[in-house]
Amino acid sequence: MNLNLIRNVLLKIDKMKVGESILIDDLNKEFENISSDDFLTLISKLASRYYVRIDGKWSHELYNLEKYNKILGLDKDGLEAIDYIKNNKIWEKVQNYLNENDYNDFTIFTVVELSKKIINKEFENILNK
């Protein structure tokens, strides 16, 4: 699945206010280029990896999500991940690295780890100056 699309979905969820929720179907309507079934699969995968909180759903039930389930916000790993993927400069570096090395089959979870390593390396460079 398109990594930029997944990033944009996570960034959109990150903008939700505390206590706010959105139906999966309503969020899907903001991303017209992805079918309802594919969007449900995406949200289910993100929820099963603790990136997205869904109303009352967890564990194996995540694979039975319906478009009328509510997204409550980012979950613990999603909150950490968003810090690594929201910076456009870092995201561009990750995309360039993936393109230059013909890595077009990475998941968002792997890309978050790659972003983390790039940020840590940049911090090391700053501290070593």
Please describe what this structure looks like.
- By secondary structure, the protein is mainly alpha-helical.
- The chain is built from six helices and three strands, in the order αβααββααα.
- Strands 1-3-2 form a three-stranded antiparallel beta sheet.
- The protein starts with a helix and ends with a helix.
- The mean pLDDT is 89.
| Structural class based on helices, strands and sheet pairing | mainly alpha
The profile of the biggest β sheet is: 3 strands, antiparallel
Overall mean confidence score, pLDDT: 89
Apparent shape: globular
Total strand segments: 3
Q: What would you report as the Rg, rounded to the nearest angstrom?
A: 16 Å
Helix/strand order, N-terminal first = HEHHEEHHH
Question: Into which percent range does the helicity of residues fall?
Answer: 55-70%
Compile the SSE list and pairings:
Blueprint: H1 3-14, E1 22-23, H2 24-29, H3 36-48, E2 52-54, E3 70-74, H4 76-85, H5 88-100, H6 108-127
Antiparallel strand pairs: 1-3, 2-3
Task: Describe the structure using short key phrases.
6 helices; 129 residues; mainly alpha
Q: In a nutshell, what does this entry contain?
A:
The chain is mainly α and 129 residues long. Helices cover 57% and strands 8% of the residues.
